[in-house]
DNA sequence: ATCTGGTTAGACTGTTCGGTTAAACCATAC
DNA sequence: GTATGGTTTAACCGAACAGTCTAACCAGAT
């Protein structure tokens, strides 16, 4: 986590740093993104940066946490009250909201995925652990609840299912990102339906 | 492609170089694998290496081509004669053969995937282009034939389907790799069935 | 014995990486 | 005016990277 001082910075500067970092991480991934480049683009000196952040992972963690909060923040991730009937429609609603945000800030999508190829060591501890935990826990709850309701298959290890769901999601998002120019409200709506359909095919009981 | 001299090397040395490189690329991915480390592990000097290979991509290309040939070489990739009935069983047979090779040389699996995160620029041209072309063409033919037979959905862009299939395949293989110790002939057979089932779910017409 | 040329070793180059440090800057307090 | 201390700068560091270069090696020909 960044030093508390970071919060005392002017909102413009703070946002400029985080946004620059976010775009870089989204475009190049955590490992491949260059600290030097980010700081140069953000118009901040190296010393200043390390005055606020412990290291690269710290900056990444702050960036992800910042944007992930508004990205996943008010989504009805609470599947506890869903029924067998409402399970898929609820998921569809989640994707609809996600994809509507996609239209405004497409690069946030890349950011979420940027940590994928990061070494497990880096991910397991430090500031990245929190958001990684959050993400996997959400999926974990989703699948577990789906199983309780009998709408998610029980014949494959949960671990494998999670990995498959993430792969499908990431691939679809990446494809969507590549077709960025052609997207509008209607296409994004069908994209949400398409995504849920894919998950349904994958996860439905045998 | 490596210099022709490379073929004049003793088979032992040639194989030792390629195998060392393959394991490194499989373990760390193309970008993250260290040339210095590979050469040190292979017991070959830097000068000697660059006497046979133009650069890192060249070594990678040679490595992938070498192992991909025996990996995909004699598989019945010819789906031209398949029927609607035999389509999925044929695919199952392909996976059975693949996974039986998995038992012998698990690291070859990682090798095939190692190029994934490689920059598109590197992949598009140079020695890697050939194998990339081969791989996508195979999938292209598969999906196209499946559509002709009416066993593969027609409502999604082929480009997206290919990406999804690769993602599913890669994820499943990675999972299999992680469970390496627990695998035997029986589990690998069910793994093939599981994989085909996943593809069937994904690709079946609506 | 000497020469030749394919082969090899490994020191070296230039670049980029994440990260450190000493000095300077500058608003505030005295 | 001057001292203080939070902030900033840019030079600098060591490590790692892919790739180059020169000198040496050494089998076979002369």
Offer a few descriptive terms.
homodimer, 206 residues, mainly alpha, Arc Repressor Mutant, subunit A, 70% helix, elongated, DNA-binding
Summed up, what is this model?
The structure is a homodimer of 206-residue chains. Chain A is mostly helical and 206 residues long.
Description:
The structure is a homodimer of 206-residue chains. Chain A is an all-alpha fold. Chain A has 2 domains: 64 residues, Arc Repressor Mutant, subunit A (Orthogonal Bundle); 127 residues. Chain A is built from 10 helices and no strands. In chain A, helix 1 crosses helix 6, helix 6 packs antiparallel against helix 9 and helix 8 crosses helix 9. The longest helix of chain A is centred in the last third of the chain and has 22 residues. The first copy, chain A, is elongated, with a radius of gyration of 18 Å. The model of chain A has no long low-confidence stretch (mean pLDDT 86). Chains A and B meet through helix 9 and helix 10 of A and helix 9 and helix 10 of B. The first copy, chain A, binds a DNA duplex (30 and 30 nucleotides) through helix 3.
